[in-house]
Design brief:
The structure is a single chain. The chain is an alpha/beta fold. The protein is built from 10 helices and 8 strands.
Length: 281
C-alpha cells in the first residue's frame, strides 16, 4: 500500500471517482461522508473494483464544526501519516440556513470545513504530501464582504453569489496555505472541475426536469470533472500553489495570485474558529 488518503464527500459523484482512483492506486483511503450507512454500498463497490479493502468510512456533517474537529481528532489520534487530502465536499444551499456555529450553510461546508480539517491534519503531513481543494470557475465573481461568514453575502439570500464567494475564499486559503507549508515540501493546489452533472445542480423548481433533458447532456460527467483533481493527487505536477483546470495550470492575474483580502480573510477565519477550537501551526 502506498499510504493514507482522505477524501471528503467521498460517496458523491466526483468524490466516488476520486476515491476509486486513489484506491486503485493502492492507497488506504478514508471516506468522509455525511451518512455512513448510505455510503457503505459505494465503499463496497469501490473496494471490489479496486481490489483494495483498506477503505474506511468516517461520518461527519461538515456544516458542524464540532464534527469536523472530532473527525480530525480521531485521525490525529491514529497517528498515521497523511499522504493525500482531497477537500472535495461541497454544497449549493437552496435557501438560507444558519448552522449552530452561526455560519451560513454553504460557507460552512464549502469553506470553513475544509479550512478547519486541513489545518487540523497538517501535523500528519510530510514532505511530499499533497492537499487539493475543489474550487470552481465562479471564484472570479466572488466577493468577500463583512457578512460572508454569517450570511454568505450582503443583502438578500441568493445561492449562486454565495457559492461563488465560498469558492473565492477557498482559493485564497489555498494560496495562503501554500506559502506557509511550501518549505515543508507539502504540495497545495486547487482543482476547477468545470460545470459537472452532479446532484448539486438543481434549482428545486418546476423547470428542473427540462434542465435535465436539455442541459445535462452537454456538461461534464463526474469522471470528467474529477480528472483534474485525480491528476493533482496522483501524477507529476508543475508547481504548488496553483489552480488547475482540465489537468493544466491556469494562468491567473496578479489580483488572484496575491489577492488583497487573502491575509485578512485568513485572520478573520482564525478568529471565528477560535470560538470553537484550538488551531496552531
Amino acid at each position: 500500500m502506498k499510504g493514507r488518503a482522505i477524501v471528503t464527500g467521498a460517496d458523491g459523484g466526483m468524490g466516488r471517482c476520486i476515491t476509486a482512483a486513489l484506491a486503485k492506486a493502492g492507497y488506504d483511503v478514508i471516506m468522509i461522508c455525511m451518512d455512513a450507512a448510505k455510503a457503505q454500498s459505494c465503499r463496497d463497490e469501490i473496494a471490489q473494483e479496486a481490489e483494495n479493502e483498506k477503505i474506511t468510512i468516517k461520518e461527519a456533517d461538515l456544516a458542524d464544526m464540532s464534527q469536523v474537529e472530532a473527525i480530525a481528532k480521531e485521525i490525529l489520534e491514529e497517528g498515521v501519516p497523511v499522504d493525500l487530502l482531497m477537500n472535495n465536499a461541497g454544497t449549493l444551499s437552496t435557501h438560507f440556513q444558519r448552522t449552530k456555529d452561526g455560519l451560513e450553510q454553504t460557507v460552512a461546508v464549502n469553506y470553513m470545513a475544509p479550512y478547519l480539517l486541513t489545518r487540523k491534519l497538517l501535523p500528519l503531513m510530510h514532505d511530499g504530501s499533497r492537499i487539493v481543494a475543489m474550487v470552481s470557475c465562479t471564484y472570479a465573481i466572488g466577493k468577500i464582504t463583512p457578512s460572508f461568514f454569517t450570511n454568505g453575502k450582503e443583502g438578500a439570500f441568493w445561492r449562486i453569489p454565495i457559492y461563488s464567494n465560498t469558492k473565492l475564499a477557498l482559493w485564497l486559503f489555498i494560496r495562503k496555505l501554500f506559502r506557509l507549508v511550501e518549505r515543508k515540501g507539502i504540495w497545495v493546489n486547487a482543482a476547477d472541475p468545470g460545470i459537472v452533472s452532479t446532484r448539486i445542480i438543481t434549482m428545486d423548481m418546476w423547470f428542473d426536469p427540462l434542465t435535465d433533458v436539455f442541459f445535462r447532456p452537454f456538461i461534464r460527467t463526474p469522471q470528467q470533472g474529477a480528472a483534474t483533481a485525480i491528476h493533482l493527487l496522483l501524477n507529476p505536477i508543475e508547481s504548488t500553489g496553483g489552480m488547475y483546470a482540465s489537468c493544466h495550470q491556469r494562468h491567473l492575474s496578479k489580483h488572484y495570485l496575491a489577492h488583497p483580502q487573502m491575509e485578512s480573510l485568513w485572520d478573520d477565519t482564525e478568529a471565528y474558529l477560535r470560538k470553537f477550537c484550538q488551531i496552531s501551526f
